[in-house]
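Long-time lurker, first post. I've been practising inverse folding by hand and with some scripts of my own, and I keep getting stuck on stretches where the structure tokens seem ambiguous. Below is the full token string for one chain I'm working on. Before anyone asks, I'm not after the true native sequence, just a reasonable design that respects the backbone. If someone could post their per-position residues I'd love to compare against what I wrote down in my notebook.
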């Protein structure tokens, strides 16, 4: 004969204070656990959304990022002349030869310098990125010392306002536009004319060549031909794969650090649940004896107390996940370990994070409830009924 589930539920309601304190401790751990996973997922989502499945990017062989890459003008022209490249609105090859450098700019709030990505772009750069829109002002003119700011740069750095002037590369650059890049990494970049950036930084090579494929299924053949071409020393990637790779190191670091901290915190929550359940067994010794006298088996008592502990964990999980869900409305910025530039992104809650957080909480509940449940199930009937 099984003990009704309502028995466990009513017992939690009877001990409101201890139930609230224990569930609160579990909720805090679940909140930290979910927030860490949301942080890593937000970083990955931002960088993956930065790429397009129809685009390919070519870097110098062995380069981990655009910042480290270098492709001379002759090689860039060879890459941009491949027949697999789609045509733009003007009928020419839809390819962009771009330069990426890092500069130090002071933040508005603290004045502390932070690495910011400057992307030298050409006429096709915006056309290749339909997720990026001009939200204010206008685009920079070729051959002019003008910049457009990503929406996550504007206002966060000194002089990063429309109509103001930014100082880098030994010259002043007028801010003429703001880009709405949505939830992509381009929102953390500053765009300027590629030739002007080359002159300012005395760098006569491009960082990458980006292009749109006529047929994305032909990428593998194009990649093999480019990497075998004796005139070139390059590697080609699908753009989405390239940006996914950029998130790997940082996301792994966040997950490992966050998981270690969460496991440490979980010991406290598990001990709290164990103390609560031991107290419940001690306070209900005669009640347990009565249940055994009425014919409830040891296994039924064991399962009833385990259900109580798991229910307590489920309440903590629900509270912790609810609190963590509000983190989606916050944006954070950090240095991307792959590029050493600042990247702004938001927390992202996914169904898998909800499932893992719930399983983590139930694991704490199981670990904290199994020993008290075993003790309750092994109580001698006569001794339990005699307890005061």
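-- Answer (accepted) --
I ran through it position by position. Result:
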């Amino acid at each position: 004969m099984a003990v009704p589930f309502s028995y466990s539920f009513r017992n939690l309601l009877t001990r409101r204070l201890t139930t609230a304190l224990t569930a609160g401790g579990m909720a805090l751990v679940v909140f930290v656990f979910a927030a860490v996973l949301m942080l890593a997922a937000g970083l990955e989502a931002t960088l993956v959304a930065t790429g397009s499945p129809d685009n390919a990017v070519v870097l110098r062989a062995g380069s981990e990022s655009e910042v480290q890459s270098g492709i001379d003008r002759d090689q860039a022209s060879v890459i941009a002349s491949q027949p697999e490249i789609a045509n733009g609105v003007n009928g020419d090859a839809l390819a962009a030869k771009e330069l990426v450098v890092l500069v130090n700019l002071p933040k508005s709030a603290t004045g502390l310098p932070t690495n910011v990505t400057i992307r030298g772009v050409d006429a096709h750069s915006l056309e290749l990125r339909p997720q990026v829109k001009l939200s204010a002002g206008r685009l920079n003119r070729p051959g002019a010392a003008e910049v457009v700011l990503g929406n996550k740069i504007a206002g966060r750095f000194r002089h990063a306002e429309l109509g103001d002037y930014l100082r880098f590369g030994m010259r002043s650059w007028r801010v003429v536009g703001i880009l709405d890049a949505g939830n992509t990494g381009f929102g953390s970049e500053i765009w300027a004319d590629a030739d002007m950036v080359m002159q300012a930084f005395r760098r006569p090579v491009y960082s990458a060549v980006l292009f749109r494929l006529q047929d994305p299924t032909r990428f593998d053949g194009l990649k093999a031909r480019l990497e075998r071409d004796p005139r070139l020393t390059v590697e080609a990637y699908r753009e989405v794969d390239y940006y996914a790779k950029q998130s790997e190191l940082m996301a792994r670091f966040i997950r490992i650090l966050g998981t270690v901290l969460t496991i440490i915190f979980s010991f406290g929550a598990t001990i709290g649940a164990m103390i609560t359940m031991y107290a419940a067994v001690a306070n209900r010794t005669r009640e347990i004896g009565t249940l055994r006298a009425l014919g409830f088996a040891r296994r039924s008592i064991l399962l009833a107390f385990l259900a109580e502990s798991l229910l307590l964990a489920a309440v903590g999980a629900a509270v912790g996940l609810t609190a963590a869900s509000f983190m989606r409305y916050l944006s954070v910025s950090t240095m991307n370990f792959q590029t050493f530039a600042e990247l702004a992104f938001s927390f992202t809650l996914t169904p898998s994070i909800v499932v893992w957080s719930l399983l983590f909480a139930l694991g704490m509940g199981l670990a904290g409830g199994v020993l008290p449940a075993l003790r309750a199930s092994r109580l001698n009937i006569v001794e339990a009924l005699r307890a005061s």
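A couple of notes from the structure itself: DSSP finds ten helices and twelve strands in the chain. The first strand starts at residue 55 and ends at 60. Happy to go over any region you disagree with.
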